[in-house]
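User: Quick sanity check before I run a bigger batch. Here is a single chain. Can you write out its predicted 3D structure?
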Amino acid sequence: MPDDAKADWDQRIALRSDEQREFAFPELDPPKEVSAVGGVGHVTIDWTPVDGAAGYLILRGAGEHGPLEPVDHHSGDVLSVPSPPYVDTTGTPGTPYRYAVASVPEVTAHGRPSHTVGAVPLVAGSIAPTVIVTVDVVAEGTELARPWEPMIGSERLSQLLCTDRTGGHEIGTELEDALRRMHDEIGVRTVRAHAIFHDDTHVIDGDTYDFSTVDKIYDKLLGIGLRPVVELGFMPRELASDPTKTVFAYGAIISPPASYDRWYDLVRALVQHLVDRYGLDEVLTWDFEVWNEANLEVFWSGTKAEFLHLYDVSAAAVKSVDTRLQVGGPSSAAAGWVDDLLAHAAEHHTPVDFVSTHTYGSPPLDVRASLERHGYGDARILWTEWGVTPTHFNPINDSVFAGVFLLRGMRSAAGRIDALSYWVASDHFEELGRPPRFLHGGFGLQTVGGLAKPRYHAMTLLSRLGPVELPVAYEGDGGGSLIEAWAARDRDRVAVLLWNLTLDQTKADGATELSRNIRLQLPGVDRSWQVTATTLAIGAGDIATAAAGLGDWPSDDELADLADRSRMAVAKLELQDEAVEVNLPMPSAVLLELSPR
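Assistant: Done. Predicted structure follows.
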């Protein structure tokens, strides 16, 4: 992608609507108790949660009098985080800092900061600190939430029918294979994609509708075992008020309809057709999402008021087929317009069965407070896009850091979000043009050619957690902030997933001062049990390192060799005194599976 085109995209994608709101956010108090503790290479900030907060913004100042500024972990998107603690690795070791925390009711607003607390990130010594992680393997436990299973993102699904080739690989065949793998190996159940109304699906034929291409797409998807999340967009050329307003290399039209009555008729006709073809019981399990990121000018050329009207009309059209069908939105960027939609819907008695929004570079915020604030507390929460970066062609997408970031985000979402959909399954993705080379920083969890990237490996590790979550406790420098664990039991097998990560993307290639030695204590485990360690780290499960020196498009033989060399490392470990010891660099993760011999 040319640098000037990328700069233009970055400028456009950053635009946010500044239209005035019709309601005021509640004035949230700052957290009452805030602490900051310096550790080797980092400071961990902790605080007491505040009712009504969607998240928290961490502020930092140098010395005693430096101005407080948001801590920037260089995600390129929202800097607020959903909950404590926060590990800051962006400071200079040995330098005193002051920290404060502000409550965030919604991504565009935050309250006054808390009192400040001081801490100093420590200079690393010659030996990495030890963190003790204790798992209660005999606890009754609770059901393990699995937010990665409900949904995955994809390039527009018309590409399932595409016979063109990228790098010698047929697009439709490989996209289908990638989605099938997500279903069969990871357990994913639905797929969300853009542009079911794009020109290439030909849904309007003169004065009638033609859904035959949509049928071919959804027949393929259901044949894999997946269901669609039907994103209602973009605007068919025949309905657009201004068909010159487009986005993406394939020219998706982003204008409002010339006639909202015709839009209503189209949506209703599609939904009725789907019910007639697949049966009401089946379609009742689907979600209908209105548009995509209308709060960015790049995706919606109309006003906020016009989008809210589009939502009203779309929801009415869906519900006219059957009131039990599920419809929601605002499908917004950076958690925006959630309160706007809910306040509008409450005033106009518009149904909202689920709230959907997106963010990148941080764990997803907790928008439940917004739902309860407007009387939609029973609505589901679907983050229908999420990832390590919003930037196309970013090398971090191919990195181990991104894989470990996925683990941290899924753990944060568990139990509070109904679906956290990683964007996207495959590098067969062409919003800004088709992939220019094999590894190009694409959004996909799998490459062109179908090889696993570290983020797919991370999904594999998650899929091996059992159904019963076990309690975990931490002790030591970075325990519970830099170092996290997710433990689960499945009959006579215990799995403990450990990782080491900061959100600071300037350290994506590693930071030796953040390495930690881990002592995993498992009181009650029989000493005869065997331990298998599966490791994701730089050089293990690391396709970018393994592919160094290859050309733009590796041959089939080179891909086969690369698939073998980019697998995660598997080793047998010894259990001694009911404990296992491992070293975790940053970034890295290890799954320890224990079972009787």
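Residues 1-18 have pLDDT under 50 and may be disordered.

User: Great, the batch can go ahead then.
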